[in-house]
Amino acid sequence: MFNIRHIAVNLLGSALPILIILITVPLYLHAIGAEKYGALSLVWIVFGYFGILDFGISRSVTTAISRAEGRQAKADIIWSAAALNTGWGALIAIVGGGAFFLYARYSSSPMVVEVATALPWMMLGIPVLMITSTLNGALDGEERFKMANSLQLVGSILYQLVPLFTAYYVSDHLPDLIIAVILCRLVLLTLYCIVVGRLFDLAALFSVSKSTMISLLKFGSSIAAVNILDPIFTRIDQVIIARFAGASDVAAYSIAVNSIGRLGILPMAMSRSIFPKLSTGTADDHREALFSSKSKIIWIWFGICGAAIVASDLVYYLWLRDPIYVEVSAVAKIYAVGLWANCLGILPYTALQAWGRSTTILKVHLLEMPFYLVALVLLTYHYGTLGAAIAYGLRSYADYIILWKMCGYPVRRQGMFTILLIALSVLAFAMHQFV
Asked: Where are the bilayer-spanning segments (predicted)?
């Protein structure tokens, strides 16, 4: 089921940007301070959220390309998807930009007003992100993972280093940093256009098909709804922290989540490599192989997350060299417990999408949302950043159980997972209390 070479390429493509982040985060803190870095993190979150609202077109492109035969058919898919995302991205930019303009106009926050001066650039960046995602989906569908990861690595380098260079040598004002980010996205899109254009001979095979657009939208509609909800689950915690605490707490939480969350690169690499293959078969064709994979990785990720919990204090102290490391480390320990469950839930999540059952994921998330939001608000209000991490862990556990059940995995076989979850929770609590 798994192609080791594809997994290795996707893993390397995810791991190398981590090294860049390890270097740049302390430099960002030194250059612009924790408060401004927290505000910049929120801008990235909102900007990235709008960037994925593509009606599931990128995943639809991956599925369609993996099933298509002939260069003309594949070119038709890419051109049609690009046209869809260009129009949809422009609409989102106008609506979202208008809403933010009104919010900034009546806001008393100096940082909000400062960010609003870069609004035209942010609006430009939304369709740029969506078109780039479409082209990346085409490369994944063709299983050109090496090429796709190389481009993403270039993007990560630009995305982290150019704004940092701007902060040190040009200006540390938020609008200037945002503009630097958008310019990097434009460069990356240009590279994608050159590579994908040559691979699929898009210039000679131009074709935009209404029927192809409808087909892409039909497959991607439920994925789109999940894409809208997913960032709420994964990023709303930082918005809630900003409401009850402050920008410095957002910075600490963001650093912890963004760094410890990188441990999920292996399941994500596995998910990305198997999605095209899962798309070409039925659930019955792949179910047993999926269950077998789960049994193998549960122990691997228990060891990885357990080691992260034990080493977090020393690692963050050596890495950040800033008093903020104490809060970052505390959040990371608790967050790692939920991350373990979340990583194990990536495989059924991917399988359900590939089998055209994204509606199932949507129903699960809609069911979880009110409970999660209530828990998040209450726990964050009483326990701050640690409470937000606990809420994430509770949701990840519920998500894991339900998604595997939807793939046909019996709940009664989850005993070992529950035991390991308790063990990991006890370890995190002990390290938080006594280290």
From this structure: 7-31, 37-57, 77-106, 118-139, 151-171, 177-200, 298-319, 331-351, 371-394, 415-434
Q: Where are the alpha helices (DSSP H) in 4-68?
A: 4-51, 57-67
Containing structural domain, residue 18: 9-228
Taking Cα atoms as reference points, which of 413, 427, 266, 284 lies closest to residue 347? 266
First to last CA, the chain: 42
**DSSP for 183-239?**
HHHHHHHHHHHHHHHHHHTTTTS----HHHHHHHHHHHHHHHHHHHHHHHHHHHHHH
Cα 229 from Cα 234, distance rounded (Å)? 9
Number of domains, the chain: 2
Q: Which of 125, 137, 140 has its CA nearest to residue 183?
A: 125
275 vs 318, more confident: 318
Q: CA 129 to CA 136: how far, in whole Å?
A: 11
Tokens for 354?
């590939």
In a domain, 235, yes or no: no
Contact 284, 74 (CB under 8 A): no
Question: Which of 33-42, 112-121, 137-146 is least confident?
Answer: 33-42
pLDDT digits (tens, 9 = 90+) for 306-325: 888 998 888 888 888 777 77
pTM confidence score: 0.66
